[in-house]
Amino acid sequence: MNLLPLRNCSNLIYPITSLSSLYLPFFASYSTKEFHTQQELEKQAEEQQREDGQRLKQEASLVSPARIQKLIASQSDPLLAKEIFDLASRQPNFHHSYAAWHVLILKLGRSGHFSLMQSLLSSFKSQNYSISPSLFSQIIKIYGDAGLPDEALKAFYLILKFNIKPLPKHLNRILEILVTRRNFLSPALDLFKSAQRYGVSPDTKSYNILMRAFCLNDDLSVAYSLFNQMSKRDVVPDVESYRILIQGFCRKSQVNKAVELLEDMLNKGFVPDALSYSTLLNRLCRKQMLKEAYKLLCRMKIKGCDPDLVHYNTIVLGFCREGRAFDACKVLEDMRSNGCLPNLVSYRTLVGGLCSQGLYDEAKSYMGEMFLQGFSPHYSIVHLLVKGFCNIGKFEEACAVLEEVLRHGVAPHIDTWMEMLPRIAEVDDPQSMGNTLNQVLKMEIKPDTRLVDAGAALGEYLVKKIGHRSTKI
Asked: Please, is 412 exposed, middle or buried when counting C-beta atoms within 10 Å of its C-beta (0-12, 13-18, 19+)?
């Protein structure tokens, strides 16, 4: 065909968000004074856009397949890209490049024009191209992202019609899409079982996808059966395979089976990851198997996994929950010796556990340590400690706790003040309390004193006292 010379062909390839942007000099030649209304200006722009579109299509029919492919790829409007593709297709002896087909198919799919994409795929099948398997990976993903598992499954079978051998990544991608829907678990399993018939062998990831899905669906027996099949089919499980089942057994409170899996894992040379250990430690503690949990914690470092804050805090919480706060203190010391510094959760859990057992002096000591490390106790912990000291007659200690928390800017809860004020009013001999609350008692606090006034006065007194001591220092 005779090709007319193209003006500025090198500038033909550009993203088109508004076709009129191709002809900015045209618009620049107009003055806004030539348009009487905004509507006329918009109408003129629309007319120019149509003219530009026609001109672009005419020029598109004259350029090479490489230019057409770039032009299609640059379009933000997939329908305009399809129209350019069709116009070029109608030119005598014109053949689109593989890249043009590939780009347009994905552009239509990602914009939700599925019928146009499918129609183009049907036409593509008749072309003599070596098709990249990645095209179908992306089509499957497009349908998955659109929430169309049925169409994604059809896309997988479409691979066979193109005489392409599916790869494990195709199988895994379609499995990941199907298992997100409970009613597609059975089709996913059926596809998995028949995969070898289509020339694709499931790999470790394939098994993991299905095992996780069935564990979350409370079908632990199916997941465990799949795990056992791996060795029979020469598929080697990985750390994730074991972790999925350990979590599944722990979720069903079958902790002994989970421990067996961990032992099997270690015997085969695998190093369990931190999540596998934390899952098992948590379940052992909840089953009150604290001895086993602590032994497992001690074995972790030997087996190549250093315990972290989550592991230690899980054991601290387990001991405190079962009324064994002294054992929890030992775990805290283990943390330090192993280079893992306790955090806010560690201290709060331990101080709360000590208070629950009536070990208020020890709790006060650890609370002081909290402040030294820059942590602040929760007001509920302060309340437990103040109330505990008050209940055993250690009122000076209770006041000392209040001084400490106020010094560090922690506001006691209203219940804490309510715990203190009646006891202040009941004291007959102020000297028996030392000098801690002398100034407050001079205010003639009585049992019927308003809580807000008394609490504010007590707080103000303690703050002033603390400030006075700091000045002296």
From this structure: buried
- How many residues are recorded in the chain? 473
Sign of CA dihedral 411, 414, 420, 424: positive
Residues 6+ apart with CB under 8 A from 54: none
What pLDDT digit, counting tens, does each position of 323-374 carry?
A: 999 999 999 999 999 999 999 999 999 999 999 999 999 999 999 999 999 9
Whole-number Cα distances in Å, 332 to 289, 316, 348, 395, 461: 19, 7, 12, 29, 36
Interatomic CA distance for residues 343 and 399, integer angstroms: 26
pTM of the model: 0.73
Contacts of 315 (CB under 8 A, 6+ apart): 281, 285, 290, 293, 294, 297, 328, 331
Structural domains present in the chain: 1-130 (no CATH), 330-473 (1.25.40)
State the Cα torsion 223-224-230-236 to the nearest 10°. Answer: 100
Alpha-carbon span 65 to 71, nearest angstrom: 10
